[in-house]
Amino acid sequence: MRALLVLSLLVLAAPARADSGAVDGESARAAALADSVVGRAGDTSAIALNPAGIADLDRTTITILGHAAYYHLDYARTGEPATSSDRAIGGYGVSLVVPLPGPEWLRRVRIGAAIHVPSSGIISVDAPTRADIPNAPMYEARLERTAATFSMGIALPGHIDIGVGVTVAPSLIGPTSVTYDVGRGTTVDSGVVVRLDRDVRFGGSLLLGARWAPVPQFSVGAAYRQGVALRAAGPIDLRAGSIRANDPLDFVDTFSVDEVAIGLAFQLSPELSISTDMTWANWSSFRSTRDQIPTPGFHDTVSLRAGAEYVVDRWAAIRLGYAFEPTPVPAQVALSSYLDADRHVLTGGFGVDLEPLTHTPLHIDLYVRAHAVGGISFTKDPAQIPDGHPSIPGQQIDALGYPGMSASILYFQAGLSLTLSLGDPSTVSR
């Protein structure tokens, strides 16, 4: 009955997933640089990646973006045929940064807002029927997320920028009531009355950032990004005559965890710039879909990113990027079967600035991004897997990943963004 109620709740709700704006929701320029932009002068992607970066935008700037991706997962239990999963993923978004008018102290302030929506819907939570179902926690629902981010950047004297923001993501609250009306029909099933109430609520996560450019050829930035999660929760009240049971629903999808990023940017020549980022992620706080710390628990990671941009004749730019993202998933020797391995992210892109050519303040940027995921394999430890039937003597192992499993992941993405600058540049004495 509980599984039926959960299924009914999630099917009747509008499908939904979410993006904090930093994953699959950034501009094509940031994506082509492998998101190594914490220390760079910002475009509108800084709204979510380092809110201090928007202080460098001296005109009202609007970015419209779209992206499409292909995700493929293969996994096989030892000695058995492989199971395959293919998924097409898409999304679109818009972001806006506005310099405030007024006296000089107010003209140092920039206000930014961004929203990203997947092409599939607004809210969706996958609630597996078993805790040992194989899944890829770094992909799956994390690829399709809906969220809005609001930021403020301030240009301080001394070439120091600071910023603060908040990312707002939806959660689903679904109180459910099940009663039995003996006079409702002629069969037992027709007497069951199910009432579902669905309510979307919003939770916020904090963004903090700073950037310092002591000389035009060098800048350093830092950012704190609080984790984002989508939750589906609510009481389930079961009543049949004098019998009453309250079995609450509580599922969670962890999209991102708390992160601290440090970035450096170098202008090596008028044409060439490079940037590097290092990000610590608190994956040890990761919780399973059932809102529990997995066994064994995830571990924290430190990822590295680098990007290079070469400007050709003031109107065109070529960009390349690379990121190494170590997996937070430990060896899957117990009941769970999380599928993940260290990944190498390769990016590239091209940008055109129409303003020097046609005096139209429009940037057109494209990018491609591929994830090269290392080999995934593990062997279960029978001593760490619970009995399938504790009442029967001996150990009966029915874990879906036993005695071991191998898997492979393929992820490829392409995207486009259009950036329009409006009005005259805001001049502020730095």
Shape descriptor reads globular
**Count of domain modules:** 1
Structural class: mainly beta
Helix content: under 10%
In terms of DSSP E residues, the strand content is: over 45%
The CATH level-2 architecture is identified as Beta Barrel
The number of helical segments is 4
The CATH homologous superfamily is called Outer membrane protein transport protein (OMPP1/FadL/TodX)
Distance separating the two termini: 65 Å
Radius of gyration, in Å, reads 25 Å
CATH names the topology as Porin
The total strand number stands at: 21
As an assembly, this protein is single chain
Output mean pLDDT: 83
Largest sheet: 14 strands, antiparallel, barrel
- CATH class descriptor: Mainly Beta
Order of helices and strands: HHHEEEEEEEEEEEEEEEEEEHEEE
Strand order within the widest beta sheet: 1-2-3-4-5-8-9-14-15-16-17-18-19-21
Low-confidence stretches: 1-24
In a few lines, what is going on in this structure?
The protein is mainly beta.
Task: Report on the architecture of this protein.
This protein has 430 residues and is mainly β. It has one domain: Porin (Beta Barrel), CATH 2.40.160. It contains 4 helices and 21 strands. It starts with a helix and ends in an 8-residue tail after the last strand. The N terminus is likely disordered.
